[in-house]
Known about the structure:
The structure is a single chain. It contains 11 helices and 5 strands, in the order E-H-E-H-E-H-H-E-H-E-H-H-H-H-H-H. The protein is α/β, with parallel strands linked by helices. It has a 5-stranded parallel sheet. It starts with 27 loop residues before the first strand and ends in an 8-residue tail after the last helix.
Amino acid sequence: MHGDFHSDSLKHSDCPKENIFKFAVMNPCFAIIDRNTLSSSKLRELLLKVFPGMEVFTYDTVEGFIKDSNRHFIHFFVSDLLLLSHNEEFDPLKNTTTVLSTTDTMIIRSGYHILDVSTPEKDIISALKDIRENFRNGACYPDYAGQKDSGHEVLSSREREVLRLLVKGMTSKEIARELDISLPTATFHRNNICSKFGTRSIPRMTIQALLLGLVSTDEI
């Protein structure tokens, strides 16, 4: 692993096992990716009404979003045109992506959630409330607060794969290449892992992963 971490650091760890997973250290947030700045600004306003206290970030390009993706994004709102030109990146994130569209049947058939931004404001708010209800029902994201404090139950199988590569010192680009996934997907998993561990420090994360039995010293 790259860096100065050594296994004997365990002797001096200030991360007792019972305190390893403290969630929401990084605030969950939404990303709006749309070239139409007027439309994204309006959607941001409506999202803040439906999800008070939620952070919402807007981007006019996918490249700009990726450069600023060091956040805990839990849902993406992407314009249909940008999705069509970056389908490879967002296809693995269908469950957490809403397409800002009108009547593009090809996108509807592809299995994405659709938000028709041409409808009246009250209808858009109603659709956003449906998304909020899905969050509450756990339809989009697991309720980690209701799970046992065990690394194997808290992390998905894909997140455990990403974690093992993270503790080896791999970057998000290297992880994406190793697992044959897109960079946004790798970054998304990395942010989720950091949020669940409550740290972005790889040495600290490695210590916690060792204590939980998610990685072995041979893998570092």
